[in-house]
Design goal:
34% helix, globular, Glutaredoxin, 2 domains, 19% strand, 248 residues, 10 strands, 3-stranded antiparallel sheet
Amino acid sequence: MLARTLLRASVRAPLAVTGIPAARFFSFKAEDQPRIRIGSTAPNFVADTTHGKIDFHEYIGDNWTVLFSHPKDYTPVCTTELGAFAKLKPEFSKRGVKLIALSVDDVASHKDWINDIEEVSSEGAKFDYPIIADESKEVAFKYDMLTEADFNNIDAGIVFTVRSVFIIDPNKKVRLIITYPASTGRNSAEILRVIDALQLADKKGIATPIDWTEGQDVIIPPTVSDADAAKKFGDFKKVKPYLRFTKA
């Protein structure tokens, strides 16, 4: 019985996870599902990509990273998204952000799909960030990228990952999670906006209000006294004792 179980493991789990034998993932049990929250350390993995094999934490290095998933190659909404990210890659690079996508098909399929993406949705931009091949669905499992129905059928054949976005900082901490339904395209400008807000918050010790964009006033956290706020930020506008605005 054990031999048959391990044999099934070797077939379904070709992806190695750093420091853990591949056979560990012969079963995708609900009780083993990692809980990814804001502040969690992004799970590490080793996987094949369109840029060769990567160790995810090594890929992040000292950079911010956006990891975003797709249900399958040649899906229409995702084709538009991958092209948009390719076009905006210089903006991400300017902010010290790496991009990496994921889909459950193999590398050869990804590379063929990239030809379509460059043709129809990147507006001439070269597609030059990696797509992870997650045929075993282990990365999808580790990052909780499955719908409820697909999670319950993860061992039963075709399983579509949900369309998730993770912003990960240089300390490998998850700073934002967004999950989209299959019918709704992502907002690439929002992801850039959040990165600007997170990086400014880390640098200046501030928070950002609703719909904030770069250059607008920011919020002084309630943990900072008025006296300390004046020393740190200079002039500020006090709307309520707990709501104070200042220039970034």
